[in-house]
Specification:
- By secondary structure, the chain is of the alpha/beta class.
- Among the domains are: 55 residues, no CATH class; 54 residues; 133 residues, P-loop containing nucleotide triphosphate hydrolases (Rossmann fold); 88 residues, Valyl-tRNA synthetase, C-terminal domain (Helix Hairpins, Orthogonal Bundle).
- Helix content is 39%, strand content 22%.
- The protein is built from 18 helices and 21 strands.
- It has a six-stranded mixed β-sheet with strand order 5-6-7-3-8-9, sandwiched between helices.
- The longest helix is centred in the middle third of the chain and has 33 residues.
- About 5% of the residues have low confidence.
Length: 610
Amino acid sequence: MARAPLLQLSDISLTFGGEPVFADLSLVVQPGDRVALVGRNGSGKSTLMKVMAGLVEPDQGTRVVTPGITVGYMEQDPQMEGFTTLGDYAASGLDPSESYKVEIAGEGLKFDPARPIATASGGERRRAALAKLMAEAPELMLLDEPTNHLDIEAIAWLEAELSNTRAAFVLISHDRAFLRALTRATLWIDRGAVRRQETGFDGFEAWRDKVWEEEDMQRHKMDRKIKAEGRWAVEGISARRKRNQGRLRALQDLRAERSSQIRRQGTAAMALESGAKSGKKVAEAEGISKAYDGKVILRDFSIKIQRGDRVAFVGPNGVGKTTLLRMLMGQEAPDSGTISLGTNLLPAVFDQARAQLDPEMSLWDSLTGDPEMRVSGKADQVLVRGQPRHVIGYLKDFLFDERQARAPVRSLSGGEKARLLLAKLMAKESNLLVLDEPTNDLDIETLDLLQELLDDYDGTVLLVSHDRDFLDRVAATTIAMEGDGRATVYAGGWSDYQAQRAEKGDAAAWNSVSYDGKRKGPEKAPPPAAKPAGRVKLSFTEKHRLEALPALIATLEAEIAKLEEYLAAPDLFTKDPVKFRKGTEALVERQKALATAEEEWLELEAKAEG
């Protein structure tokens, strides 16, 4: 017997500011769905998700949620008015006996429940909103960019939780590795239309390219037909005026159909050129150490970075990646050891805080007001790699339209702010690019272009990122900062680093480092990491499951330890038997889940070994 859908949208139409966002849109979310919602920045992904959540009312059409089904929505900018701390917000709506779920999610996502909302950063607020959703555990989760502002450790925790959930979810993300690991279907928004394919994100790009190829072929055929019919109309209409009015009307219909077709948005016309070459040595550190307030950030670290190197810095948030980057740039002195910089360095910096952007300035003024981009006597031009360009034309290269030029920076989306910052960075000649989390908010097509530009860049690249796929595509060297002052240099990108660390028997190290750099978690290590894909004889799904199980097992062990500590309170049973009963039920549930996960891991590992 077919199960009722969780959510159904029928004939949805929506218009913002005179421009249609969707027309006659219909979709269904079924129990167990794991759906990637993809599309270019500005295509309407977040708007569609708000319609699904019931937060935006369409102009026409219906939204139906099956009775008894709860829908949870994690938005990019959560509203927290009326709450004092992040924990108050995250626990709102939960039974007090289930507040431990917020603590567990808080540990996995690394936010402090006691943090006052008034002093919390945007990233901390988003992590609290995500913790709230995970603790509530609705039947359908709508997640809008959940990995933004998470480090790789927290992304791994979230990936394991979503892999193990029974709930359905719809997921917006530009993190390819995250989408590939979790999704089984894809919703693609393209020019107001939504297509669905029953394969996960791994098959999306081939599907998209095929659709576009077929579309281009049809457009080419239509253009040829219009050209032929137009030639007929000019050459033969006078002799056949009466008999061929129908053919003329058909030609007019063809022209109307062709003109009404919405062209695809192109990729940004970004360009990146290096200036004069730097010296062969870019930076060299010998035995450097650094500590703040008694906390060791770095201990006895040495590295030599040469011209053309591609160096990635990875590690949990707060472990000191940006501090090390600043020391290697000569912007901060080590407590001990020496740092020497190379000659003729022309750095260009992309900072994760977007501090180079004044939210109250217009896009126009943000470019023309930059001293390095100003053209003397030309208020409407900017200097782009030594050549004057009209400011509107340059903004269009980065997919901004003329109407946005005079709008304030604060009106831009996260992806648009990232593109504006790239426009400022790429206008300048450089031979050293310092990119501190450049991938946040950029859509997949722009990430592809940025990666290609970095491949062709003659200078040196220093990169901080939590996007595993981007790290694999760009980095030739990875510096892993794993807490306790440890920083280790590995050859290759993220996957290479993981493989080399596993060979050293340090597979559990990553998940055992908390955001404050201290060791945490149970002493029992999770099962060994899965063998490289080339050595196992498993299906695609089984490989992903084998890779995800160690993190899931570690999570369940941590949750069990937390519940056992909670239930150990001597007066809990007498003071609040309801909380005691619910805690006991949760403990039994997780113990069963742990036993199942360990048994599944053993079976898959045995199968992998043949």
